[in-house]
Amino acid sequence: MMDSLPPPGSSPLATTASVASSAKERGKPWASVMAAFVLGAGTFFAVEHWPRAVAPAAKAKTRDSSLPPAVALPSNEAATATAIRFYTGRVKRDPEDTRSQNALAEHYLQRVRESGNEDDLSLALAAARASLTAIPAEQNIGG
Description:
Layout: H1 12-25, H2 29-59, H3 77-93, H4 98-115, H5 120-134
Helix pairs in contact: 1-2, 3-4, 4-5
């Protein structure tokens, strides 16, 4: 009886197939039919009943009405403007400073989010492109 237990970490499909093949070798054709039946019944149950079994869990993810509504965080436009001036100065001193170029692009995007003025999008794009051109493509694997 201990020979029929699957080895740890093996898949059930491989175990069912191995039981069926070893049963044929031992002259028990009914075992292979039984293994096929169990495999088919399990697949049918999973396909047929899975959506209904998962549906209650999906409904449980609705918003709890007892939670307060989301509130926008206060913007700090002065800090964003200071950061833009700082990183602009660093980029002027060292145009190949990719971290400063990336930070400058990030702060331009932050100013777009805070003010709603889309004029800074072109500045953010220029800073991002400058960051990409500062390092040759062969050295910039991620970029």
